[in-house]
Amino acid sequence: MDRHIKAPLNDDEVKMLKAGDYVYISGTIYTARDAAHKRMYEALQNGQEVPMPLKNNIVYYMGPSPAREGRPIGSAGPTTSSRMDKYAPLLMDQGLKGMIGKGKRSAEVREAIVRNGAVYFAAVGGAGALLSKAVKKAEVIAYDDLGTEAIRKLEVENLPAIVVIDSEGSYLYEDVAKKYRKI
């Protein structure tokens, strides 16, 4: 099913999403990759604030290429999500509602998604130039010393993604594999 959703997310909207749904995300989302996740994780472990609002927000595992003239961002493709698996459960426990990346997630992340009523989306890897067209505005808000891995606040319009793990724990990659094993 195709769904148009607005970020930040709300609980009712997240509950409606099912593994396999195509979504078009509009609104405010944030980017963060490995180094930024490590810093946020360490800050939370030390009782400190993180530089982006977590409650009901979406983080996109993406490090953009430099913006071309007249564009807010360069290529905006997803990175491998499993590299953030160590950090994701704590961020979800603090209110993070959605993650966008590519690839599989650990059992611990899947459990945290269900526990927190969150959702994991996949964006198409290798389509960064196309995905960048959904980004209308981008600004670095933290960790600018990390370059492309700095945390950015993005305004997006109809960013395409697929629900891979829904709030009930349905996992598209496993569910589809089971379906085709029966055939």
From TrEMBL:
Species the sequence originates in: Coprococcus catus GD/7
Family classification: Belongs to the class-I fumarase family.
InterPro entries xrefs: Fe-S_hydro-lyase_TtdB-typ_cat, Fe-S_hydroAse_TtdB_cat_sf
Protein's recorded name: Hydro-lyases, Fe-S type, tartrate/fumarate subfamily, beta region
Keywords carried by this UniProt record: Lyase
Enzyme Commission numbers on file: 4.2.1.2
UniProt cross-references to SUPFAM superfamilies, sorted A to Z: FumA C-terminal domain-like
Pfam families per the UniProt record, alphabetical: Fumerase_C
Gene Ontology MF terms in the entry: fumarate hydratase activity
Fe-S hydro-lyase tartrate dehydratase beta-type catalytic domain: residues covered: 8-175
Lineage: Bacteria, Bacillati, Bacillota, Clostridia, Lachnospirales
Domain of life: Bacteria
